[in-house]
């Protein structure tokens, strides 16, 4: 029996015990289709205005709390940017991020 997550089954991935997509690249959490009202809802402490993205500590989004692969949460989940909303469990971006962190993909 394999312990690797089944990439064809999104239920096999639990985002709150992963967080890999939020700590993959400082270039990934870019704002794309958000309007000014959407951006204003995100607390300024988590926004990197000059770069047009979420503020990161290295490759990790500053709004992510917890330990990758164990237990994580987003401090701005309700107002997170579109790029964060479109990353789905088991999609290609998810699998790339999981592999980057040595998690089963």
Explain this structure.
By secondary structure, the protein is an alpha+beta fold. It has one domain (13-100). The chain contains three helices and six strands; from the N terminus they run H-E-E-E-E-E-E-H-H. The longest helix is centred in the last third of the chain and has 9 residues, at 92-100. 25% of the residues are buried.
Strand order of the largest sheet: 1-2
Q: Radius of gyration, Cα only, in angstroms?
A: 14 Å
The secondary-structure element order is HEEEEEEHH
How many structural domains can be distinguished in the coordinates? Answer: 1
Number of strands: 6
Low-confidence stretches: 1-5
Mean pLDDT across residues:
88
InterPro entries: Puta_zinc/iron-chelating_dom
Organism: Methylobacterium ajmalii
Pfam family, one: CxxCxxCC
Protein name: YkgJ family cysteine cluster protein
In short:
This protein is of the alpha+beta class.
Sum up the structure in keywords.
105 residues, alpha+beta, two-stranded antiparallel ribbon, 3 helices, globular, disordered N terminus, YkgJ family cysteine cluster protein, Puta_zinc/iron-chelating_dom
Topology:
Blueprint: H1 36-41, E1 47-48, E2 53-54, E3 56-57, E4 60-61, E5 64-67, E6 71-74, H2 82-86, H3 92-100
Antiparallel strand pairs: 1-2, 3-4, 5-6
InterPro entries: Puta_zinc/iron-chelating_dom (IPR005358)
Protein name: YkgJ family cysteine cluster protein
Pfam families: CxxCxxCC
